[in-house]
Amino acid sequence: MFSFETIIDNLPVLIASARYTLLISGLGCLLGLIFGAVVCMGAVSRSRAARRAAAIYVSFFRGVPLLIQLLLAFYLLPLVGVNVPALVAAILTVGLCAAAYISEILRGALNAIPRGQAEAAIAVGLPPRDIWTRILLPQALKISMPSLVNELILLVKASSLVTVVGIVEITRMSQSIASATYRPLEIYLAAAFLYLAINLVIAGVGRTLERRFAP
Amino acid sequence: MIDLSLFQQYGPALLRGLGMTIFCWLVGTVFAMALGFVLALVQRSVTAWPVQWLLRGYVEFIRGTPFLVQLFVLYYGGPMLGLRLDALPAGLLGLTIYGSPYFAEIFRAGLNAVPVGQIEAARAMGFPPGAIMRRVMIPVMLVSALPALVNFSIILTKETVILSMITVPEIMFETQTMMAETFAFAEATLVLALFFWVFVEAISRIGRRLERRATHYLLDRS
C-alpha cells in the first residue's frame, strides 16, 4: 500500500538535504557565470590561440557526460596531488561544466548587442576591460536571462549526479531513507516532487526577473 | 603511466559496454521519439481539457525532475506497483519516458510550423488523412525540426551513462568495474573521454548530413 506516513515522517530530513542541492547548483551556476564569461571572451577574442582554447574547453565539457567529469575530478585530482573535500570538487566540476554552456549562451547574447556600442566604446578610449565589464557583459546578462534561468534549472537536476561522490543531497538522502524504510516508491517520488517544487519556484522567480529586466 | 596490457584483459568487457551504450542510446532515442510524436499528435488533436491538463502535468513532471530520480522511482519503486523490471528494460523505459516530453515539444513546434495552406491543398486534392501526415506534414516538419532533434539525441547519449547507476552494464559501468579492480583511473578516463568524443562527433556529423538532405531543395533553388 502507498504509505503517505513514510513520506511525511521523512520529509523534514529530505528538505534539509535540499540545501546541498541548492548550494551545489547555486554556487555551480555562479562559478559557471564567472568562468563562462571568461571562456566567452576567449571565444570572441581576436587571438587565434584564445579562440582555439575556448573551443576545446567548450567541446570537452559539453561532450563528456557530467557523471564522468565528476568521477574524473574525484579520482584524478588526488592522483595529481590536489586534495580538496568532495563538496568543493563537486561544486567546481558543476561550475566548470556549466561554464561551457553559459559561455555559449553569452556568446549568443553578445551577437544581439549592436556592434556600434563596442566600436563607440573603443572610439571614446575605454580600456578593453571596461568595455567588457561596463558595456558588453551587463547587457549580455540581461538579454540571456531566460536561458540562464533555464540553465539553473538544468543544474538543479544535474546536481543529483553528485551522489556518486558521496555528497548527501536530495537524491543521496532519499537513497539512504529508501534503504532504511524499504519504501523506495514513496521516497523517490517525494524526492522527485521536491525537485519539481524547487524548479517551479526558480522558473517563477525567473519569469518575474524577466519582466523586470524587460526593456 | 598508461598500461596497455590492461586493455587485453578488460578489452572485451569494455567493448561489450560500448555496444550496450550504443544499443541503449539507439533504442531509447527511437522509442522516445515515437512516444514524443504520439504525445505531440494527441496534444494537437484532442482538445478536451482533462487530456490537455494530464499532458501538461506529465511534461512538467518529467522535465522538472532529474533523470536519475526518475530511474530510481522506476527501478526501485516500480516493484511496489507490480512493475518488476530488470535493469536493462527499466533503463530503456526510463530513457523513453525521460526523452518523450522534450521530443514532443520539438515535434509540436515543427508541426505548427507547417504552413496551413499546404495541408489544405493536400486535403483539397483528396489526400486521405494518413497520407497528408506521411507525405506532407512529416517531411515539411522535419526540415525545421531536424537540428533540434539531433541536438536532443546528442544530449541523450550523455544521459545513457546514468543507466550505470541502476547497474545496466554499459560503458560507464564496465569502466567503473575496471577502475575498482585495477585502480587504473588514467586508462579508464582515456577510454571514456575518447569514446564519448568520437560518439558525439559521429552523431553530429550524421545529423549535419541529414539536415543537408532535408533542406536540399532549399539550396537548389536559391
Number of domains of chain A: 1
What name goes with the CATH superfamily of chain B? Answer: MetI-like
CATH superfamily assignment of chain A?
Answer: MetI-like
By DSSP, the count of extended strands of chain B is: 0
If helices are DSSP runs of H or I spanning 4 or more residues, what is the number of helices of chain B? 9
Decide which structural class fits the backbone of chain A: mainly alpha
Give, in order, the helices and strands of chain A.
Answer: HHHHHHHHH
Shape of chain B: flat
Which structural class do you get from the secondary structure elements of chain B? mainly alpha
Mean pLDDT of chain A: 88
Query: Helical residue percent of chain A?
Result: over 70%
CATH domain topology of chain A: MetI-like fold
Q: What is the class of chain A in the CATH system? A: Mainly Alpha
Major β-sheet of chain B, in short? none
Could you state the oligomeric state of the chains shown?
A: heterodimer
Alpha carbon gap, first and last residue of chain A: 53 Å
Helix proportion of chain B: over 70%
